Amino acid sequence: MRSFTSVLLLAIAITSVLGHPADLQAERDRLSSVSSQHVERERLVQRSTSRKYSPADSNPYADWPSYSQLPLDSSYPTKAGWGVWGADDVDGALNHITNATILSARSEIQLGETFNLNLPLEEPSIPINPSRKPLQHLFQPESGYTDDVVVMNTQISTQYDSLRHFPYSTNTSIDTYRWYNDLIPSYEDVIGPAPTTVLGIQQAADKAIVARGVLLDFEGWAATQNLTHDMLHTNYSITSSQLDSVAAWEGMPSDWAKPGDILFIRTGWLAQFLALDAYDQNILPYSKEAPSGGMLASAETLEWMWEKKIAMVAADNPAFESTPFSQTIDGVPRSLHQVFIGGWGMSILEFIDMEKLAPALHSLGRSSFFVTVCPMNIVSGIASPPNAIAII
Ligand SMILES: *[C@@H]1O[C@H](CO)[C@@H](O)[C@H](O)[C@H]1NC(C)=O
Ligand SMILES: *[C@@H]1O[C@H](CO)[C@@H](O)[C@H](O)[C@H]1NC(C)=O
Ligand SMILES: *[C@@H]1O[C@H](CO)[C@@H](O)[C@H](O)[C@H]1NC(C)=O
Ligand SMILES: *[C@@H]1O[C@H](CO)[C@@H](O)[C@H](O)[C@H]1NC(C)=O
Fold this sequence. Notes:
This protein is an alpha/beta fold. It is built from 13 helices and 16 strands. The protein has helices at residues 15-19, 21-36, 41-44, 99-105, 188-191, 202-207, 218-224, 240-249, 269-275, 278-282, 299-308, 336-344, 357-364, and strands spanning 7-11, 114-116, 136-142, 145-153, 159-161, 209-216, 237-238, 262-265, 294-295, 312-315, 328-329, 332-333, 348-350, 368-373, 383-384, 389-391. Strands 2-16-14-6-8-10-13-5-15 form a nine-stranded mixed beta sheet. The chain has a three-stranded mixed beta sheet with strand order 1-4-3. The longest helix has 16 residues, at 21-36. The radius of gyration is 20 Å and the shape is globular. The relative contact order is 0.20. One 2-acetamido-2-deoxy-beta-D-glucopyranose is lined by residues 235, 237, 296, 322, 326-327. Keywords: Signal.
């Protein structure tokens, strides 16, 4: 049976590795040696022992800090949620998901209709960030059966950003990197020859994430407003007050959010991209500095998200927020990536395909659904396809 299994080699987001066969072999050796240590993983993966806010408490949010109370210690970075779930916590915003929130999400399954929220891994066919190499998919014929080998940068298509992907940094220099709960002392622990495992994507895989998803269809609402929003060529930035209007347009009450929700925003980036023919898709301004639309990185956005106790955010665009990152928060250059991932331990899903789910929800007058997310179980992994499924 095992011979029939696809072999997936995921080069973590070290794009230079992909260009050098010798390094790639070293990376393969490292990955296979890591996987042979699989049995030791439970020992290696750190788990929270002292949650300050236990989901089992009768009112787990009795002492929940407001956004204005962040960070809990002035030595922590901008609006970090460090210590909120305990000093050793590794799960961050996923702590909002409890047995009770999962049982409550069951009521979202009404028709038994399922939706794949993942793009084909080879889309977009040219990686939006040109320092990332396209997917390599090889077939390996064997006697009487076929294997395949996939080598990919995990950031090129639909993806789950783990808590190792994005540290705080003030000037993008590794001297200033700081990860969630200050659990990773140095960059060497992330990309060095013997990486530590804490905050790796295996934690999210082990969590086996199940939640209520809520879809805010900005693209659908914008069409009713005749709102010009070129998400492919400009840094059009969606505000939290626009999201309130979207929720109202969808017929939701103002207090629609429940702790543990996963928030999906259909910005329109993917719809606009898919509407182009292949030629026009391939001549987008592909550059690290090229603008793309998304959420506005601002204090208002952060407060709006924090107070909703969201477990994870997702969108149909390259970076959830608009790019290039150019905003300051509390006077410091900060992106939503830094505060969500490095500050709150909140992962981000990108390039999520809601193009079938959104019209199905609209036709039913619904905004919410049951959702499962299971990234690949890669020890010390940075990102992965999220293998996200919606059920309505
Ligand atoms: C969920 O239920 C299991 C089995 O009853 C229990 O072991 C676990 O502690 C519960 N988790 C939470 C977060 O309540
Ligand atoms: C970034 O900031 C740190 C801390 O202030 C400083 O040590 C470092 O030299 C800076 N790096 C660059 C490239 O500016
Ligand atoms: C949008 O444009 C249509 C067609 O021009 C017009 O009928 C409608 O009133 C406009 N809607 C808004 C909200 O401006
Ligand atoms: C969008 O880009 C313009 C022009 O570069 C810049 O002035 C503006 O601050 C950017 N807005 C956001 C929200 O990034």
